[in-house]
Amino acid sequence: MTQPTALITGASSGIGAIYADRLARRGHDLILVARSAEALEALAGRLRREAGCQVEVLPADLADPGDLRRVARRLEEDRGIGLLVNNAGMALGGPVLTADPDRLEAMVQLNVIAATRLARAAVAGFAVRGDGTLVNISSVLGLAPERFNAVYAATKAYVLALSQGLHAELAGRGIRVQAVLPGATRTALWGRAGVDVATLPAGMVMEAEEMVDAALAGLDMGELVTLPALPDIAAWERADAARLALGPDLSRSQAAARYWQEAAA
């Protein structure tokens, strides 16, 4: 079967470039999005030679509103696009208290605002055709905000929640959603965040190629949430079931009796 065209953001290096390589070898034509036209052209040339696929380079700075709208329009209007890998993002190490607020805002702009606009554009286009796949790259830090910069963790928790919510909204429309939650992965993201990845325990750091291959295996298995490092997916299923079990008690007409019991005591 002919594979749909895949659009990949943050495709010039790291996780995005590996997704491009793997999807090209699976038979997808590609649209590669990143700021560096030179790096994209080099990757595109290699993939055309090695995989024999069509590769379009679409340079764009997703922090720029005009560029973001341009990529979103392409996603919504190009009926040949059937897969979005929503990968572009940035990180910032260190405590929020001492961080540059402009950099924190830029991180929210890219990790949340741009990711949301592109996800919405993609599923709007998919809905017209009745099929398509949205892959959102989140992070395990969305589940563990105490372990890194709180704003970064919050942006990744947002991406997870967005993915789960879209999955529910789009049920029955032929659109697949996957959230990928990598742990520490060896990419240039760490250096740009001001963190030396070599300072992390070696047993914590996964090679980016292995992470992407596991994520694609999770996609093939139909997972909504893929945690490449988690040994037993049942552990995630139990945690998610516990979250869902809270539902009936999260919104009631009266406050919980425990508040008044403590006051009476």
TrEMBL record:
Xref: Pfam families: adh_short
Q: Which domain of life is it from?
A: Bacteria
The record's SUPFAM superfamilies line, in alphabetical order, gives:
NAD(P)-binding Rossmann-fold domains (SSF51735)
PROSITE patterns, sorted: ADH_SHORT (PS00061)
Q: Which UniProt keywords apply?
A: Oxidoreductase
Which InterPro entries does the record associate with it? NAD(P)-bd_dom_sf, Sc_DH/Rdtase_CS, SDR_fam
What family does this chain come from, according to its entry? Belongs to the short-chain dehydrogenases/reductases (SDR) family.
Q: What is this protein called?
A: SDR family oxidoreductase
